Amino acid sequence: MKKVFILSVMLSFLFATTSTIQAQSDQNKAYEHFNAAIGHFKAKDFQSAIDAYSEAIKVDPGYTKAYYNRGNAKMNLKDYKGSIRDFKKVIQLDPSFAKAHLYQGYAEMQMKEYPKAIKSYTQALKKDGSLHQAYTNRGTAYLKTKKFRNAIADLDVALEANPESATSYYNRGICKMRLEEYPDAINDFSMALDLKPSMVGAYSVRGKALLKIDRYNEAIADFNSAIKKRPEHGDFYYYRGFAKLSLENYMGAHKDFTTALELKPNHTNSLINRAITGFQLGKHDDAIKDYSRLIDIKPDNANYSLNRGIAFLKLEDYKHAVSDFNSALKKNEDFAQAYFNRANAYTKMDLYDKACKDMRSAAKLGYDKAYDHIRDLCN
What is the pLDDT of residue 12? Predict the structure, then answer.
C-alpha cells in the first residue's frame, strides 16, 4: 500500500512538472512571436507585425501587450475597427491600461465617431491624468462636435503641459474663430506659425481672421505666404482677391479671381467677384459672360439678371438690358433696382411713358434715387 502511495505522489509530481514545463515553453513561444512582431513593426512591416502578434495571442490568449501592440499596428494600416477591437480587449484584460483608452479614442476619431472618442479620452484621463495627449485629442474632438468652449478648456491644459505644440495653438485658434473672437484667434495662429512656419493652414486661417476685422493688407501678406507654399490651392487666390477688392484694387482682385477659377472652375464665389471686378474695370463683355454662367448655375437669382442687365446698359445694348430687367422682375416683383434700371433703358429708347411708370414703381418701393428722376420723366 505504501508503495502505491509513493508511486501516486511521484506521478502527480511528474504531471505537475510536465505542465509547468509546457506552460514555460508556451510562454517562451509567445515571447518569441512578440519580439519578432516588434522587429517587423520597427521595420514598418505592419502586416507581418500583426501576424506575429496574432501568433503570440494564439499561444497566450491573455497577452495584454500583444493585443495593445497589434491594435497600434492595425492603426498604421488604417484598420481602425480592428484596432478598436484590440484596445477593447486590452481594457477587458486590464481596466487600468490608460493608453488603451487613449488610442481607442484616436481610432474612433479617425472614423469620425467624435462622441465615442470623447468618452474614450475621458476614461484615459480618469486612469492617468498625466496623459496630456488625451487633453489635446479630446480638445480636437470637442472642436469637431462644435463644443468650442470645452475644446478651448482642454487645449488650455494641453498647452500648459506642452507650450511647444503648434497643433494645439492652431486648433484653439480655430475654436476662437468659430466664436468670432478674431484677435485672440489671430494670436493663436501666430503662435502656431512661430513654432511651425511650414504650417500652411495657419497662414490661411489667420488671413481669414484678418479679413473679418478689415486688416486687408496683413491678410494679403498671409495669403501671399500660403500661395508661395501651395500655389495650386485655389481658395488662397480667392481670399487674397477678396482682400484686394476690399481695398478697391480691382485689377489685382480680378487677376486673383481668374486664377482661382483656373484652379477651381466651379468656385462660385470667385465667379461672382470676378464679375463684380470686371464691371468695375469696364470689362462689361467679360462681366456679362460671368453673369451668364451664374444665371446658368442659379436661374432663380434676380441679382444676376439685374447685374447682367446693367452691364448690357453700359454697352448701350438696351434691348438685352430690358430683357434682363424683365427677367429680374419675374423672379422678384418688388425689385426696386430692376424697375429703376429698366426705366433708364426705356429712357435711352425714348419710351418715356414706360420709363415714368417704372421710375414711379421704384420710388414706391423706397428706392431714393428714383425720386429725382420722376420730376424729369413724368412732367
Answer: 52
Return the H-helix or E-strand segment holding 292: helix 284-297
pLDDT tens, residue by residue, 89-112 = 999 999 999 999 999 999 999 999
Helix axes 2-42, 64-76, angle to 10 degrees: 20
Asked whether the beta carbons of 185 and 209 are under 8 A apart, the reply is yes
| pTM attached to this predicted model | 0.84
Which residues, at least 6 apart from 170, have a Cβ–Cβ distance to it below 8 Å?
Answer: 188, 189, 192, 199, 201, 202, 205
Q: What does the buried/exposed string (b/e) look like for 67-96 if buried means 16 or more CB atoms within 10 Å of the residue's CB?
A: bbbbbbbbbeeebbebbbbbbbbbbebeee
What is the spatial distance between Cα 233 and Cα 147, in angstroms, rounded to a whole number? 29
As a whole number of angstroms, the distance between CA 270 and CA 346 comes to 32
The pLDDT, as a whole number, for residue 71 is 96
User: Would you say 267 and 298 are in contact if contact means Cβ atoms under 8 Å apart?
Assistant: no
Number of other CB atoms surrounding residue 237 within 10 Å: 25
Is the pLDDT assigned to residue 15 strictly greater than 70?
Answer: no
**What are the start-end ranges of the H helices in 43-165?**
46-59, 64-76, 80-93, 98-110, 114-127, 132-144, 148-161
CA dist., res. 27 & res. 122, Å (int): 34
Query: Does residue 9 surpass a pLDDT of 80?
Result: no
How far apart CA 321 and CA 344 sit, in angstroms, is 10
CA distance 62 to 68: 11
How is residue 248 written as a grid cell? Answer: 478697391
Residues with Cβ within 8 Å of 312's Cβ and at least 6 positions away in sequence, in order, are: 284, 288, 318, 320, 321, 324
Residue type, 84: I
- pLDDT confidence of 140, banded at 50, 70, 90? very high
In the DSSP assignment, the letter for residue 128 is -
pLDDT in tens, 278-328: 999 999 999 999 999 999 999 999 999 999 999 999 999 999 999 999 999
